[in-house]
């Protein structure tokens, strides 16, 4: 391995160490707390650049470094936007609606027992206002695609459950679109009973499995 690679790799690893051990302002939220999403994105990009530098040919060294830096920058911007959007949604949505930030997407989960009557795909009045708030958030953060995914528990016929999950996902998507989100940003899917998040052997587990998820996926561009 030549000296230039070792020097560059050492520098990048040093940047990783500094990023991991310090809390600069750019890694803090409005409350002064460390923003793990942003820090993780930047550290990940630096690690990627380091690995690329160590394993690449000399003529590809610059590309590896630039790619890692660009990835870190894009990841940091995406993480920052997701953190902001998550915080705003938590302030405006009902407590019955859960929000999970995975670092690369937001998952807003609507419990079916609150959203729909039994065996119905008509959205209840109880969550219409919340769905319009979600739509407003999506309009204000336009650089993302949206998946609306319906789920059921395992009671009843699997084929019927799948159809019901599709109808419910479409109903939620229709309200989001009515709130101003362009149709081409939304993809609807019904999963039926295929993707439980809890056991279907208990009433509590079945209740958790009956849900519609709104998945917000930032665009890298």
From TrEMBL:
This protein's record includes keyword Calcium: no
A GO cellular component annotation in the UniProt record: cell outer membrane
Residue ranges occupied by any OmpA-like domain in the UniProt entry: 103-220
Name this polypeptide is given: OmpA family protein
Gene3D superfamilies with a match to the protein in the record: OmpA-like domain
Source taxon at top rank: Bacteria
PANTHER family documented for this protein: LIPOPROTEIN YIAD-RELATED, STATOR ELEMENT OF FLAGELLAR MOTOR COMPLEX
Compartments (UniProt record): Cell outer membrane
Residues making up the signal peptide according to the UniProt record: 1-20
Keywords per UniProt: Cell outer membrane, Membrane, Signal
Cited InterPro entries: Bact_OuterMem_StrucFunc, Gly-zipper_YMGG, OMP_bac, OmpA-like, OmpA-like_sf
PROSITE patterns, per database record: OMPA_2, PROKAR_LIPOPROTEIN
Entry annotated with the keyword Protein transport: no
